Amino acid sequence: MSELVIKYGCNPHQKPSKVYMKNGGKLPFEILNGNPSYINFMDALNAWQLVKELKQATGLPGAASFKHVSPAGAAVGVPLSDTLRKAYHIDEDLELTPTACAYARARGADRVSSFGDFAAISDTVDVSTAKLLASEVSDGIIAPDYDPHALEMLKAKKRGNYVIIRIDPDYTPEELETREIFGITLEQLRNNAVINKEMFNNLVTENKDLPPEAIRDLLIATITLKYTQSNSICFAYDGQVIGCGAGQQSRIHCTRLAGDKADIWMLRQHPKVLSMKFKEGLKKPSIDNAIDLYLRDNITEVELKEWETLFEEVPEKLTLKEKEDWLSNFKGIAYSSDAFIPFKDNIDRAAKSNVKYVAQPGGSVRDEDVIEACNKYGMVMCFTGIRLFHH
User: Fold this and answer.
1) Catalytic residue positions?
2) Is the pTM value of this prediction over 0.90?
3) DSSP-assigned letters across all residues of 255-271
4) Does 261 have pLDDT greater than 90?
């Protein structure tokens, strides 16, 4: 297949629209099911690069959950605790393979944002992973291959319209890439920067204790940033993204957004949340939205009344002290920035979410202020020397 006509571009009025190779060659993927949209392809092709690099960097299966050309979550195949299984609504009797663990974690990073996601898997999609996807609201998936039984399960999603793409894992794009804006063509060397553990060797803080788990999480956070709309900040912990702040004009706003999402991820595991009694038959997206409202401080009266109707027993809200006490249980969170950190306020906000490990390119005129802030909190910070803007 050298060209694929799609129904429209980003919006229904943007016609005609198609996907093709600039050099006239064969497309490096195959559509196994469904009718991908323009945005599906944008998500799929970015997500595939992310999970492929996760696998290369860590040796573990990688997964991503994409929405509107940025990852809502990304992870590697680390086993889940019983608490996480419950927080992610995973049936007790479902056996999770490493690939399934990776997707469960990617989806679980921000379950509200992952509603209707495009999934990417670095390895062959097995039945365990397909069972997870079968129970979630998702638009499509891209992977190098599919177990035959898993493929049949996925084909049944969305009344047979679930998008399934098989990509050639050996495909390598040309070094130069182009795009058009307003009829004008821009050209650049594609972002072929290799992110590996050696990037974190330049430790600039007093604390230089960077254990293997921290390096793994910094790898996940930094590779995720490479495919996140800039400006961007990513928090990672326990083998997965737990908060991603994308596309903000100010870096502190990225940090606040990512930090707030990370806090919600941690609070979703609070015993009061896990013990909530919802009305029978309530679907996962409604439960996720209800939990999100429960954890928010600025809920309106109208939202409160609607929210209360979802429960068999309306739970008491967590107090500020209960939240702070619970968040203090999570230690060693990793934080990565796609460009230099210009002010120490980013570090102050990161400290509130228990960040211990920081990666950033360095190069700000206020680097010393940021290093001093990290030293104040006992953080470990490295300068990677490479900016990772993505647009």
Assistant:
1) 67-68, 231, 391
2) yes
3) HHHHHHHHHHHHHTTSH
4) yes
